[in-house]
Write a structure and sequence with these properties.
Elements (H helix, E strand, L loop, with lengths): L1 E2 L2 E4 L3 H13 L5 E4 L16 E2 L10 H20 L3 E2 L3 E5 L5 H14 L5 E3 L1 H7 L7 E5 L3 E3 L1 H14 L3 E3 L4 E7 L2 E6 L3 E4 L2 E3 L5 H9 L5 E12 L10 E4 L11 E4 L5 E4 L3 E2 L13 H8 L2 H9 L1 H12 L1 H9 L10 E13 L10 E5 L2 E6 L8 H12 L2
Helix pairs in contact: 1-5, 1-11, 2-11, 9-10
Length: 397
């Protein structure tokens, strides 16, 4: 049985960022990352639109607000130092109806309270100068936001970890975890490991890892499928950078938006509907275990009771391309239904409490010798390096 001073379960961007920061700090001499897939960053870390989130949407004083603001600055520095392609292109959050204007001004103040710089309210003619085809009564310009390829970031983090004598074992799914005195025994399909310090960064599987180790978990990961369309290449000129709607307070997600990605493609989306597979990126993906976990969890049904109208609207947009296009046209009216072709799919690992409340902030659960990161959806990738610092501080290593 192999022994390591510290083991991280999960080779997504947060697990890798944590391993990298721990090795840079020289706080542990032997470190191991266990990743169940054949490659790092295989799930949420690479199945996203690659936005660098500056921290506009998150409640002042929350971990999301603090770590997004710090995280984007660290991420940009990391990309600069390591030759990773990124761009600070700015974003518009556009109010298309009168009822959204008060929320727009509230968002601006919230962003300023969180420490964002350069936020401005734009009039319609100013919107046109930045996004000529966008329509709105007013917008917030968020100049610090940008785009990056997070899979490139994951690969660079992995390379640095291995250069610093950390180890990443791939295709190594964890099957059981047992307490052995002051140590944790981690069983995998291949071999077993022993460590006094275990950190769970397993993303979509984090609640299951928590339950393996502790016998229970205070939340359940309920996967939401985010479906994107892409603009046909000849219509990409309709979107220069990032165009977002004012978030609908009836639903906890950001709504359909338009994103120019670092590869030059323009994505429209996502919607947010229940996924019947935690890692199901193909149309019609289905996993019995994942489906039973969701459908027999009271938190899901309580969530649907809290947000019935918005959940219904999301499902309709998923089933009907015309309705999806109408949501896009609120921001850019010239986009037509035949401009949109099927694009990528992402799965958001959203933690739910049993009473149906979404876990709104990053969630750490710590006990002796173990720490679980149980909720780290967007802006988790942007904030990953800052989340790593927070975990190290929490562990008091």
């Amino acid at each position: 049985m192999e022994e390591s001073e510290l083991i991280i379960i999960g080779g997504g961007i947060i697990g890798l960022a944590l391993a990298y920061k721990l090795l840079c700090s020289k706080k542990c001499s032997s470190l191991l990352v266990l990743e169940k897939e054949k490659e790092v960053g295989s799930h949420q870390s690479s199945h996203n639109s690659g936005v660098l989130h500056a921290g506009l949407y998150y409640s002042p004083g929350s971990l999301k607000a603090k770590l997004a603001v710090e995280g984007i600055r660290q991420m940009v520095s990391f990309c600069k130092e390591n030759g990773i392609t990124y761009e600070i292109c700015g974003k518009l959050v556009v109010a298309t109806e009168e009822r959204e204007l008060s929320e727009l001004y509230r968002l601006k103040k919230q962003g300023e309270d969180n420490g964002l710089s350069g936020l401005r309210i734009l009039e319609p003619q100013e919107i046109k100068k930045i996004e000529p085809y966008a329509r709105g009564l007013a917008a917030i310009l968020v100049p610090e936001e940008g785009i990056v390829d997070y899979l490139q970031v994951c690969r660079q983090l992995a390379a640095k970890i291995e250069t610093m004598k950390g180890r990443i074992l791939k295709a190594m799914p964890v099957t059981a975890i047992e307490r052995k005195g002051k140590f944790w025994e981690i069983k995998t399909m291949g071999q077993n490991f022993l460590t006094p310090n275990l950190i769970n960064c397993a993303g979509l599987q984090s609640d299951r890892i928590c339950k393996m180790a502790m016998g229970s978990c205070p939340v359940r990961i309920v996967p939401f499928r985010g479906e994107y369309f892409e603009l046909k290449q000849q219509r990409n000129y309709l979107v220069r950078n990032l165009i977002y709607p004012v978030p609908d307070h009836r639903f906890p997600f950001l709504g359909v938006h338009l994103t120019r990605m670092i590869n030059g493609k323009v994505e429209a989306g996502p919607n947010a509907v229940l996924s019947f597979a935690r890692e199901g990126y193909e149309q019609g993906s289905f996993n019995w275990s994942d489906t039973v976990d969701s459908l027999f969890y009271p938190g899901l049904w309580n969530f649907l009771k809290r947000y019935p109208i918005a959940a219904w609207e999301e499902w309709k947009r998923s089933a009907n391309k015309t309705l999806f296009c109408q949501a896009v046209q609120r921001l850019v009216p010239e986009i037509k239904e035949n401009d949109l072709v099927k694009g990528a799919v992402g799965i958001r690992a959203q933690a739910l409490f049993p009473d149906g409340r979404l876990v709104s902030d990053f969630l750490f659960v710590k006990e002796e010798g173990i720490l679980h990161l149980l909720n780290a959806p967007s802006p988790g990738a942007t904030a990953s390096l800052a989340i790593a610092d927070e975990i190290i501080k929490t562990l008091e290593l």
